[in-house]
Structure formats: C-alpha cells, structure tokens
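Cross-posted from the bioinformatics board.
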Amino acid sequence: MSFKILVCIKQVPDTDDIKWTEHNTIQREGLESIINPFDLGAIELALKAKDMLSKSNVQAEIDVISMGPPQAKQALMTALALGCQNAFLLSDKKFSAADTLATAYTLSQFITTKIPDYKLIICGQQAIDGDTAQTPSSMAQKLNTAQITNAVALQEINEAYSIWVQDTKSQKRTVKSGFPLLVATTLKNIEKLPDINGYIRAQKTEIKVCNAEEINADKAKIGLLGSPTQVKKAFVPEIQRNTTLIENEPTNHCANYILNEIKSCKANNE
Amino acid sequence: MNKKALIYIEINNNIEKVSKEIISKINTLSNDIEIDGVVISDEMTIRNNFDELKQLKLDKLYLIKDNLFDTFQTCLFANVLSSFLKENNPDIFLMGATENGRDLAPRTASTLDIGLTADCTELQLDENANLLATRPTYGGKMMATIISKTKPNFATVRPGAFKENASAAGLPEIIEAIPAINGHEFLIEVLKCEPKPQIEDWTCADVIVAGGLGLKTKENFEKVYEFCQITGAKPAASRAAVELGWAPSDIQVGQTGCSVCPKLYIALGISGAMQHMAGITNADRIIAVNTDKYAPIMQASDTAIVADACSILQNMIDECTVNR
C-alpha cells in the first residue's frame, strides 16, 4: 500500500473587483481565480515528501482536494500538472457560504469517508482572501491528528515519522511527529512550475467531483447553515481626519514643520 | 452582571502585551459584564508573573497550573482550554492573535464546534451584549463585521489593535482551576529551538518614520534609518518598500505587517493603500508627505504636505546635522 499524502488547496480571487452576495459572502462565480499562493507551497512540500520517500523505497501518492464551485477544477488541473496523482473537487450548492468551521468539517468528512488511510495532510497556512489561518488547525482537530503549523521545510520523512522546520517571528524550531499528521506551511514561492508534460498528464486524469450526499455530510454542519459565524456588514472603511493641507511651501519650511512636530512630541513626554 | 467575558491571558516568559490590550478594550465596552481571565501555564511561570497577574483589571482570574504546561503544545492546550470553557461557559471569549493564539484558537473552536473570528481589529457589543467583531479581509481591502450564532462568541484579536491602559489596575479574585488532561494528547517533539533575537517593540514608539515607494530608491530609503538614528524615532516601511527589498518585513506597517500606535506617525512617500491604513488607525497624529495631493493617505492624515519626500527627508537630515 502506498503512503498517502493529501494536499488541500483553495482557489482564490485574483482581482480587486469583489462582489458580495445577499448573504454578505463573496460572489465567487465569474471571478478571475488563482491557486492560493500558500497552497502552492503545500504542493511543493508534498512533492518533496514523495521524492524523499521514494529514495528510501517507499512509494507515495499525492491526492489533491479542493472545495468550491465547478471552476475550481482549474486549480486542481494545475496541481495535477505540478505532479499530484489524483484530484477531488467537493462541489455542491449546499457547501457554499461555508465559514472555516463548516469548511473544516466538510474537508474532514470527505477525508474520513473517502481517503481514511492517509498518513500526511499538507495545507497552505492561510488563504490570501480571508487570511484567517483557521482551517488547517480546525481540520486537524476534526480528524483527530497532530498538527505542525508555520512549517517552511521538510527535513526528513520515513514511514514512521517526519521532521519539519518551523519558522515564526520569535523562533526557528526543528520538530518531529509521527503519523497521521497535518502540516500547514507558510511557504509561498515555489521552485517548480508545471511543464507541458505535466499538463498533458493532467488532461488525462479525471477530476472526481463529490457532493454532500456522497460524503455523508450532516446538512446542519455544511455551507451557510453549518457556519456559526456570519458577516453582518462588509464595508470599505473611511478613515477621515481633520486634515491641514500644506502645499507650495519651500522644502525647508516643510522640513522644519516636521522637525518641530517631532520636538514637541518629545517635549510633551518630559 | 448577567453576561460574562473571558480572556485568555497568554504568558511566554512574560504576559503577552496583546492580552493586556484586550483587557483594556473590553473594560471600555460595558460596565455591566463580568470580565474574567484564564491562564494555562506552569507553576514557575505563574509565580514569576504573579505580581502583574494579580493587578489585571479583571473580576476573576482562573489559573490552570501544571508543569506539563511549561511549553506550548497546541493539542494539549486546546483540550485543557475546551474543557474549561465547557464548565465556565462564558458569553464572550477572546484571545490574542499571536503565533500560539492562531494555532490554539481554531483547534479549541473546532473542539467545541463554535464559530471563531480571526485577527479582529475592532470589538463592539450589540444591545444584547453579543460580540460584533470587525476584521480586515481581502488583504485589507474591505472590513467585515462578524457575528457568531454560537456561545461563547469567540474571536482572536490582532496585537497592537488596541491600546493598553497601563494605569487601570484591578484586584481580581484568584481561582485555581484543575486542568482536565485526558492522557491522549499529540505532543510534537522539539528537536531544536533557536530563539530569534528579540526585536525591541517599536510599534508604540513616540515617533515612527515610515518610508514608501515615493522614496524612489533603496539608497534614499537608507536615509530613513539615518534620520531615525539622529532623532531617536523608529523606522518603518510600507509593504511596497518591503517587497522591493528596501526594508526587512519586521518593520512593515499595515494589515500584513504590524499595527502601530505612536504619538506621531510620519509617512514619507506612502500612498496609503487600505491595507497600510489598517495598521495606523491608532496613531495619535499622522503627517504625510507625498507629491500626489490626492493620494488616499492625504485625506487620512492630520497634516498633508504636498512635496517630494526625498527632498524633505534630506533637508531634515541636513538641518539636524547643522544644529548639532
């Protein structure tokens, strides 16, 4: 049996032209989309893991999963072209408008029903549209696995355990964990780009589409209904101050004005 | 007092500043709610911080102590915290969106099957004391106010989003709570840990001088450092300047960088994209220098100077050196 690696990816809008639905969620259809950059980092780590395992004669297979509208197939195609073996799209109107908790439930429900023999899950730490970084941790809990976040490199992997480098603002750690394990990565820049052979292989691979029924999803836990958090209001903030405009003044006047402001700021402190 | 808010007080050697910022903010929201805190840590760390803990402006402070808690472990802490929340049953639960907080909060929320709003920069209560949590979304292009149907209303709060009111002290009732450790925890083995040099917290310095694209070159940006050296101000940068490699990401201001709260913020050649403005709303005073009178930052400043930022910066440096 091969060593199963799962990668979860999200298609995100690549435009400033954001439209909101009546539920104050994002209108995804018709929006220019890209693979979330952090998820490309996840694919890269999965490919590294597969490669390292094969060097110790362990055969690994990478399954890539996404939840979204039918057009998210594009993102999965890219993942296949990059070297993933199988692709699954969780797509159902009932899944839409899911918050992080409902998303984590849906993905973990898919994994437990369809790919229960996985060893390693790799996710991008966060998606650039929401920036919450919640789904990986939430999913790890639902799947009852250990989790390593802020991962930037894979140092060692074998059938029993893997060793990762975590990089955060305060420290750099080397950590070890057995399987099953969920890893979230902050890597964004990937070395490998899909080549023409990759795209040909991807074209030949069927992307399996799953709906809510096929994964035995509890209706109360998916989509809008399963999302405890809801956007009450979305707005572009107006930051207004009572502005004094200085223009057509000589440079040294302006410079002195700022220097005086700095001085008075300091004087107030003493 | 029928409603109850609980704040997770994070300690890594010292009490995290954001925990104190949340306490200060929540105390300004209502006089009618009970405000409690909870600490999960080891005996020694709690003892070292006890003088400060016992003066936090809280009604009750729960201490969950065990020597297992001397290092942060996501799964262990999430289980202990979830059990405590089930028993304590607060209406609102808040945590700092620190590195550990961003790990612990979603795992805890998922255990309890409750909603969680990440990285909030504004907190309000509605007429029924439900939490209205506002956060930047879409890379800081929009703000979203989020409500939760589940109890507790749970949110993480962005460090620096609120100011700490250092003068407000309380006398919380201290309660020791017994941790629920169920033995089946996934512990991650730490093979090596290299702490990074602690960068002095510059985000609330009196004066911050930030440079952006309008400084045109890396060499010009270097002058921001030079000027800060002379005046004792702290240097900062816009995202664009960081992406061009003019400045390290540690000093980036904005939604994807730091939130700052200086007395005076001087923006040199920064246009003021939404995502940058999200980081400077707490500055007392903002002076912007930009050649474009209509740049967004100009309307959002107290003083907007239409001029070339490079010349002004050079002129200020010259002025200071002459007067020395």
